[in-house]
Specification:
The protein folds into two domains: 304 residues, Aminopeptidase (3-Layer(aba) Sandwich); 168 residues, Glucose Oxidase, domain 1. It is built from 13 helices and 18 strands. Strands 1, 2, 9, 12, 13, 14, 15, 16, 17 and 18 form a ten-stranded mixed beta sheet that branches. Strands 4-3-11-6-7-8-10-5 form an eight-stranded mixed beta sheet. A hairpin with a 2-residue loop joins strand 3 and strand 4. By secondary structure, the protein is α/β, with parallel strands linked by helices.
Length: 510
Amino acid sequence: MRRNLTRAHCALLLLPVLPITLAAQARPAVPVAIGQIRAADLKRDLYAMASAAMRGREGGTIDELRASMWVAEQYRRIGLQPAGEDGGWFQWFNIVRTRVSPTSSSARIAGQALTVFSDIIPLGVLPVEASGAVLWLPDPADTTADIRGRIVATMLRPPATAAIAPNSYPFNVRYANAAINAVLPALSRRGAAAILLVADSLVDANFDALAVMRARGLYDVDRATPRTNGASDRVAPAPAAGSGPSLGLMVRASMAPALQRGADATLVIRLERFEVPSVNVIGMVRGTDPVLRSQYVLFSSHQDANGVRLLTPNDSILAGADDNASTTVAELAAARAFVAQRPKRSVLFVNHGSEERGLLGSRYHSAHPVVPLAQIVAVLNGDMVGRNNADTAALLGTQPPHRNSRDLVALALAANAATSRFVIDSSWDRPTHREGWYFRSDHLPYARVGVPAVYYSTLLHEDYHTAQDVPERIDYAKLARMARWMYMTGWLAANASRRPALDPGFQLER
């Protein structure tokens, strides 16, 4: 992708579908408690949450649980009421993880034993048991060879430039995926039992990093809001060996001579499936109105990041300062303001677990909310709110097909006009945007089940999902402005005479 895309958009127009009279309307009064949102507090909290001691807070690990306990302790110090299960701060759920077993799997080529995820990388989470002579394909596009039921091998080739689509991943990842996708599906459709791809020079140089990524496997959560409309809310059982697509495996470039000579191979790739705990952290400020306090404005963030990985020689911790410690500390600042000056409606603060593993915490909470779903009047979600141009930001869920509440969007725009006055980049909210940014954060499950929702972001940057996303690179003055904007939107929603209405006929999917 063009890594500085958001920095180049410094003169952006508000969406044509939004109310054009907002600028002329009287700005709403700003509560005195907004003074509780201070850049110094945000910086202190963010350095703690994104410290090396948190080890990247990966979902489903002890590091995420450590960070979750830290968030709960901040909630307690601020003065929130615990709103999780059983009178505590937490809502627990289990991650269902399916991966290639590194201990039960084995591979042998030309008499040489290969270590799974060191010498050979399974490219999918599929079981396979195959043995026999390897058929070398000099040209994988040649369809004259009968490969049904065979172990085939071919050299990975540079993909077409157009296939290396710009997106948020580094070039070497996009290159490898494009090269794999140029070969693997076609050979699989032709019925190969297994497909050995020999790394070219670029993929070979990044072989270890590719292995770390592929070893993680698949993550899901049972009894949750589906990923997409019409999908099952249950985790599907692992497929039996030989019952599905062919499994592709990547081998190092040094294996090419043996495979070209038609070596024998024995491949036993087995899966393992297990559950690990993750958690949502939930606190509350009780509203002052005896009627309206049974309704809730929900502030949404996620506390997990991407853990410890082999990515750079100097640093393997993905600290996740912007993604998403930035919104978590903005939530803490907003919580201080709401405790100092309580609104009419109640306010829930939810830090969702394991967002990076597939929106797992928000999918679970939206299906098992700690308060009745019908009583949640709005979800204000933030993800990556501390970087890029000082005066621009994005608000997603503001235009069809993503907008599900014109009323909530109007409140958010009024809050921006009254506080931070960002120029709003609307382009990332368009369904044609290549990143599909709207579908990649924790507001999504709530929108899917019919709760008015918007998504605040300052968008991607070159440090996204890298070891360079560190506290030193956050713009704390901008982060304070984002926190005030989110808080002010929540204040307006929590004190409005009527709750934001859903747009009629809202359909989320593209």
